[in-house]
Amino acid sequence: MLLSRLSQSWEQEQEFVSNVSHELRTPLTIVHGYLQSALGANS
Fold first, then answer.
1. 5-36 in b/e burial notation, b at 16+ Cβ within 10 A?
2. What is the CA 11 to chain-centroid distance, rounded?
């Protein structure tokens, strides 16, 4: 019983981390592209 709950908690944690990284990837990519173009324009 305890092992089953622990396994389920681990799976939920992994899913959460995966979802967070997915949700952050797009905005960070946009900001990164903007900064690259802004810094490239000043060179």
1. eeeeeeeeeeeeeeeeeeeeeeeeeeeeeeee
2. 17
